[in-house]
Amino acid sequence: MKTVVILGAQWGDEGKGKIVHLLSDRADVVCRYQGGNNAGHTVVSGGKKWVFHLLPSGILKEKKACIIGNGVVLDPYAFSEEMTLVQNEGVDTASRLYVSDRAHLIMPYHRALDSMYEESLGIGTTKRGIGPAYSYKYARIGIRLCDLDEREYLEWITKRALDEVNATIVGKYGRNPVTVREVMDALEEYGEIMKGYVTDTSRLLAEYLKEGRRIIFEGAQGVLLDVDFGTYPYVTSSNPVTGGVLTGLGIGPGAVGQVLGVVKAYTTRVGEGPFPTELEGPTGESIRERGCEFGASTGRPRRCGWFDAVAVRYAVRVSGVQALAMTKFDVLDGIDRLPVCTGYRIDGRDTDRFPANVFVLERAVPVYEEFAGWESTAGVKRYEDLPAEATRYIAALEKLIGVPISIVSTGPDETETIIRGPLAVDAG
Ligand code: IMP
Q1: Is the CB of 128 under 6 A from ligand 1?
Q2: I need a labelling partner for 112 at 20 to 30 A (CA). Which of 31, 255, 394, 403 fits?
Q3: Which of 37, 270, 304 to mutate to test the pocket of ligand 1 (most atoms within 8 A of CB)?
Q4: CB 269 within 8 A of CB 11
């Protein structure tokens, strides 16, 4: 199968946007399968920097089909804003972007609820309404794109949703109630924005797969933020893991050719939650500055730390990752000694397992192995041109994690990349 899943194998922000954009040259189709406009996928192309929150990162490559699957929660205002931005720059998006009719809509009240919940829960969410939209989906009071033309249904489901919305907004937070009229007006606007994009994307994908097209399944966030496998409750509300590809697009397991995990050469996290290798002093600050580690969605400074091989090994296992792409390698240039976390000491015991409970993970003290640093890797395009210390670092990580590092990114531009392969999208 000439398809590849590209997912984050840390806490998000691994540089998936660059890798997807780069590999989309070799693909025909790029699909998003989960998350919403909480993502921030940065792409540098032709000297210009783009940040995509919702649109698949293949959108800049004209003639590539882009799919937003049923597993995504979609805010039409964010969709419209991003489409306008891309179109204003002269990118032709006509007849190549498809949105699933079964995807759930992010409603204005979901955004309001996200902010209210955040005050009491302190997860550090993006406040884009992602969590409430997924909660309503599972509570069977969500509104989907396929509902937009069915006025009677819309009124019926809106009333059911508003019972819950107002019980919380009015009952718990003492705000003004949301009216059916307001929601129906917003839905009318949603219908206008989404006209012409909505289709049965699972069916479309089945056709593409039958034709042997090369497809990228683009994950958002990362495995350690997955609602099932991440550092719960400090997680997002969807499944970035490979399992999410199948449920988020309506395809079978045979459709997945290769799973490529993206990791940074170090670790970052935005929002709250445990982070064993976090560096709180000047070294962390220096990595933040050099790596421009500020949230692409919210501008928040990202927490930075050393590479955590325990966490990545775990992410690789639960997602069936077969190869890694390592980004921001050059950000480590010039650092003398590079500690890598190879195990945790928890309550006086050594372990190489990633604990399920966050209070336990908070107590984990990283066990480090140190590697010699190197002078410069910035912009290097061939593996043979890397300094020996850099290839030693890569080889050591491959051994610790158990999968090959097939791509190494040495700068933000798509050309600043070493591709060692093999990649499923290159299959003949
Ligand atoms: P939510 O996805 O907005 O509900 O936020 C839940 C958690 O996931 C918070 O800690 C966010 O900072 C984090 N998060 C959501 N999207 C991203 C992302 O694209 N990159 C990194 N962290 C993210």
Answers
A1: yes
A2: 31
A3: 270
A4: yes
Tokens of 390: 């850099």
Cβ(219)–Cβ(7) below 8 Å: yes
How far apart CA 325 and CA 379 sit, in angstroms, is: 16
Pocket lining: 221 vs ligand 1, CB cutoff 6 Å: yes
CA of 38 to the centre of ligand 1 (A): 6
pLDDT digits (tens, 9 = 90+) for 100-115: 999 999 999 999 999 9
What residues are labeled active site? 13, 41
One domain, residues 190 and 326: no
Q: Tell me the CATH number at 325.
A: 3.90.170.10
pTM of the model: 0.96
Which of 424 and 218 is assigned the larger pLDDT? Answer: 218
Q: What residue has token string 């790596």? A: 291
Residues 73 and 115 in one domain: no
Three-class DSSP category at 154: helix
What distance in Å separates the CA atoms of residue 161 and residue 142, rounded to the nearest whole number? 7
Does ligand 1 lie within 6 Å of residue 70's CB atom?
no
Q: Are residues 21 and 141 in the same domain?
A: no
Residues of the domain holding 117? 104-194
CA angle, 148 as apex, 143 and 149 as ends, to 5°? 145
Nearest to 130 by CA among 117, 120, 148: 117
Q: What is the pLDDT of residues 44-61, one digit of tens each?
A: 877 888 889 999 988 988
Ligand 1 pocket: which of 14, 37, 118, 225 to mutate (most atoms within 8 A of CB): 225
Q: Whose CA is nearest to atom 11 of ligand 1?
A: 125
Q: Scan for tokens 């059911």, then name that residue.
A: 160
Is residue 427 pLDDT above 80, yes or no? no
Mean pLDDT to the nearest integer, 362-370 = 98
Residues 102, 213: contact at Cβ < 8 Å?
Answer: no
Our count of domains for the chain comes to 3
Q: What is the 3-state secondary structure (H, E, C) of 67-95?
A: EECCCEEECHHHHHHHHHHHHHCCCCCCC
Strands 41-45 and 29-32: unpaired
Q: Do 242 and 289 have their domain in common?
A: no
**CB 130 near ligand 1, within 6 Å:** yes
In 62-207, beta strands by DSSP E: 65-68, 73-74, 97-100, 104-105, 198-199
Do 243 and 269 lie in one domain? The reply is no
Q: Are residues 207 and 94 in the same domain?
A: yes
